[in-house]
User: Which sequence fits this backbone?
């Protein structure tokens, strides 16, 4: 297996050092990836002064180019997001908008800059919304060139209109743990294949 | 208050006499409406031989024209739907597609056929998806001319990846009951206003 | 008719003085509202230093409380948003997240702070995505207490994968103009009714 | 390259022999796949008496088991769907619901029945909605175990509120053709890799 690297973009609305459930599930996803020998890091996007926009660099102290460099170097990119009102967080949307710029970025052989990279998603909320958040993320990520491994969405949500946070659960629920394990295992398998066997040049 | 009528379209995939959680929440919503003096009925769409299409009558024994007649006579139209894969049921989508035909139907004064009617939505699933289902239904219903009262979505879902059905709960959870009460109360208030004060002619 | 006020929240990613298609359609929507005697204003959210969060005031120079004051004073609230990757802009999502706080805000008689307010949406993009953006906005706005008038979504998008901006069209396409007129007319009618006839206390 | 097979599920609402734009784009997608040596077929789902449900066989003349057999035999599964009200067709939803049953179907080594299969989507509408339809389809297909190649969504839509059908265009627009070519090329590459290198057993 080739040496693989991963970056997990945590898209909580809360800057460090606030505790964050999406940060927790992001860390858990990274641990699963690391158990397969992947080297990776978690980036808490809201700490990095990322600017609104749809270019690769919005200037003026924009924190995105630093994050983008890590994405360009990674084989696996994960988004870890909270759910608000049944939808992905605004920080997640800001990340996806910045990735939109990659549609105009092609490498030496005409491949999209994200070609060959694999994407997965981890989602948490007090209640309801994970499937739709996964849909929004997978569609946007796939659109700019990411490949999506089988069962790429890991998640936890509570019962309707409950208020418990993921980070306050005593243990990770078994089924959520299973989705994390599966998403990571499949991501590693696929990223490994795509590293050795790139898509045909565009 | 004017005499108001309602029709609740239950969009379960299962024909009668199977028990159905969406049928249950549809009945509960109707009871709430009836407590305000509204007269109404529940229609289980899958029992009625409705055909796929986007016209008001697809012919060939199509069950839609009979349902449409009840909708045309109603002040309040509710959709009660199960969640499958985080999305509205195919039967719900079939109903929305049939309502698409109403965009071409205008009355004597140039108003859309659904103008002045109020819509609400009730959603149940084992887990996750209610907000998105509400979004899909409200957008489509609003598009063809329905008015949406405040807090128009009532719902219940269980914790992530659980398998309990709404109809197997011992009691209706208090918060779900609250969403039913609110949606019905607001629908009645708005329907009443719109009956007496129609939108300006188109 | 009571004196009505409106606020249009323009959710472009680009700060002033950049030209913006969503700013243009927001202004057009306001003009339509003004033609009915409504007094209103356009707020370009990205100019106001709004912070990420889900409270009414995130402190530290947060621009939201100033905007919130205008919303609390308004009868009609409109969101004007661009489409990115088929989805609402991150600035729109930031606004919706800030409005999420209103679920905990009730007035003297137990009504939600947004109760009685009417919401409409205007959407522009080079191509594809308006219906889904409208769905996301209407669901979230309705969830926190806004009432949605019939045909509340006005929009323009170009053909698949085209690059023309709304602001570069020679004229407003007739059908888009029609959606603006209808959304505004219906919003004014409904806001007027709700001002005189508030929802029952909660 | 291994011998690959594909099945394209056309999800138009109209039975044969009506002309159908989604049937056309489905055929075009199959042609692209065939140009890579893939053997495949188009199935018009609405012609097959598929029943509503979430099991692999709903009995009573259900047409799904016959389709399911073709899916089980295929390496690449495509959905070709029209857009109605900005959303996937009810027939598409019916197909996704039937595929939901596969979450309970595992093979000898504990892999999901859809594991190792690759999915792509082709979408057409008079106007607006392709991205969201792609999102709904990819999320549901990925959820049951399909892998999604880079840029898996091919589409055409017209300008806002236009009425031209895809099948009435003189030529396939270049950009739509490009999405078909890319989706097919990437699907073949990925399906080929996954045939030779299955995901680890569950």
Assistant:
């Amino acid at each position: 297996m080739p040496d693989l690297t991963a970056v997990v973009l945590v898209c909580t609305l809360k800057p460090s050092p606030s505790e964050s459930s999406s940060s927790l599930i992001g860390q858990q996803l990274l641990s699963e990836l690391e158990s397969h020998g992947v080297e990776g890091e978690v980036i808490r996007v809201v700490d990095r002064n990322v600017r609104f926009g749809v270019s690769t660099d919005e200037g003026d102290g924009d924190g995105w180019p630093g994050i983008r460099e890590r994405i360009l170097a990674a084989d696996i990119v994960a988004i870890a997001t909270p759910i608000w009102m049944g939808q992905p967080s605004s920080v997640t949307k800001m990340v996806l908008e910045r990735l939109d710029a990659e549609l105009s970025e092609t490498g030496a052989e005409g491949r999209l800059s994200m070609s060959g990279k694999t994407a997965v998603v981890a989602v948490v909320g007090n209640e309801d919304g994970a499937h739709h958040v996964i849909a929004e993320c997978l569609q946007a990520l796939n659109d700019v060139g990411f490949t999506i491994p089988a069962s790429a969405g890991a998640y936890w949500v509570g019962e309707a209109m409950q208020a418990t946070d993921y980070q306050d659960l005593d243990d990770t629920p078994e089924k959520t743990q299973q989705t994390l394990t599966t998403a990571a295992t499949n991501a590693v398998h696929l990223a490994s294949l795509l590293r050795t066997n790139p898509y045909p040049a565009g």
